[in-house]
Amino acid sequence: MTPRRPLVVTFYSYKGGVGRSVLAANAALGLARTGRTVLWDMDFEAPGLHRLPDLQPSAAFQAGFFDWLTQWQADQYAMPDAAQLAKFMKLIYTTGFSNLEVLPAHGPSANPADLYIGIDWHAMLRAKARATATLFHTLLHHMHAQGVAHVLLDSRTGLTDVGSLLIGVLPDVTVLVGGYGAQNMAGLGHVRKALTALTSHEQGQHPMRAAFQLAPLQLLTVASPIPDGNPAELAAARELWAKAMGCKLSSLIEVPYDPALPLSERLLINSPQSKVAPQYEKLVAELQGIADRQRADFDQAQAALTERLADFDEDPRQLGKRGGRMTQGDRFEAKVAQLLRLLGYQVQAETVVDGNRVDL
Questions:
Q1: SS in 3 state form for 31-85?
Q2: Distance of alpha carbon 29 from alpha carbon 23, whole angstroms
Q3: What pLDDT score was predicted for residue 161?
Q4: Can you say whether residue 115 is alpha, beta or left, with left for phi > 0 and alpha for psi between -120 and 50 degrees?
Q5: Inter-axis angle of helices 332-342 and 277-309, to 10 degrees?
Q6: Tell me, what's the pLDDT at 319?
């Protein structure tokens, strides 16, 4: 079984201007009520979460994830050691809210364009795609080991290689955010259709998700910002949205337009008088429910594994006495095969690698 990791949620929009980053920040603040939550700026081409008024750091910081990632690439994609993981965690800064922290893309004085151009994205996401995915999973597992319960990724708009990593390979949940305009609905609907193949084991897991033993991807859709208007026009727009997204209107979370938000970019989830707060709360409730189920499923699987491993005893005199299949006469290879199966691996007695026959 893979190590436990935080709930990972990616916020994605096909077009900009739909309030994706502010939505992610409000969701992070809501989830922070139940555990340590990190809002990770992965909008590589237009980062800036650290500039939101309510997400200002409690103390000065100098660097961000760009800087760390640049060094990782310079180190030839080697998996980070303890010192490098500690340096990574120091990039995360605290905010004025309890349990809410931010992992910025860069330091306040950095030139994000220079940092972005300095990273060999083609190598990372093509030739070294497996190493890159392993890196991010390693970082996520380490964050959980440090007490992080939720990680929310703010992804870039449009169709990009890094976007595929962030919305299809890494998360447990992808939140698709868009408006009722034709460009938004057509583009976001296309992305949702592509991601649907990852939402069940029956349709086939993405090889990267399968390699890291992730559960099927879960998708949530959010329409934002939606202005008050003619009820008939809004009803027609919602029907077009449902058709474009291929989902029921009952699953739609609709964030109304608030004229104060484009100017202030404030986090309003804790402001009951705001008309956007109830919709933010609805999204948080959905995400918290997924987190609770994920935790329960992991605990159940861990308990089942522990029970099955109890059947495997190193003392040959005890083998087979607890209902397991192992017997005292089993060969060493059979014992190893049984243990590997208990750990969730598939085991073949013999296979062919580069034309050579290899046992077990």
A1: HCCCCEEEEEEECCCCCCHHHCHHHCCCCCCCCCHHHHHHHHHHCCCCCCCHHHH
A2: 10
A3: 84
A4: alpha
A5: 160
A6: 44
pLDDT one-digit tens code per residue, 306-327: 776 666 555 544 444 444 454 5
Is 142 in contact with 151 (CB distance < 8 Å)? no
Tell me the DSSP string of 20-32: HHHHHHHHHHHHT
* Burial track 188-212 (b if 16+ CB lie within 10 A, e otherwise): bbebbeebeebbeeeeebbebbeeb
Amino acid identity at 121: W
Per-residue pLDDT of 22-54, as tens digits, reads 999 999 999 999 999 999 999 988 899 999 999
Q: Which residue has the tokens 């979370």?
A: 253
Number of H helices, E strands in the chain: 13, 10
pTM of the model: 0.85
| Of residues 139, 190, 151, 216, the one with CA closest to residue 11 | 151
Q: Which of 64, 16, 26 is nearest to 280 (CA)?
A: 26
SS3 content of the chain, % helix, strand, coil (to 5): 45, 15, 40
Angle, CA 188 vertex, CA 186 and CA 191 arms, to 5°: 110
181 φ/ψ sector (left φ>0, alpha ψ -120 to 50, else beta): beta
- Residue 148 to residues 5, 37, 258: CA-CA distances in angstroms? 8, 6, 32
Question: Predicted confidence band at 202 (pLDDT cuts at 50, 70, 90)?
Answer: low
Q: In 10 A of CB 252, how many CB atoms?
A: 15
Beta carbons within 10 angstroms of residue 168's beta carbon: 20
Choose among 133, 119, 105, 8: nearest CA to 72.
119
Please state whether 48 falls in left (phi above 0), alpha (psi between -120 and 50) or beta: left
User: Any idea which residue has 């949620």 for tokens?
Assistant: 9
For residue 225, is the peptide bond before it cis, meaning its omega torsion is within 30 degrees of 0? yes
Backbone angles phi, psi at 350, to 5 degrees: -155, 145
Which phi and psi (to 5°) does residue 9 adopt? -125, 125
Residue with tokens 């243990």: 339
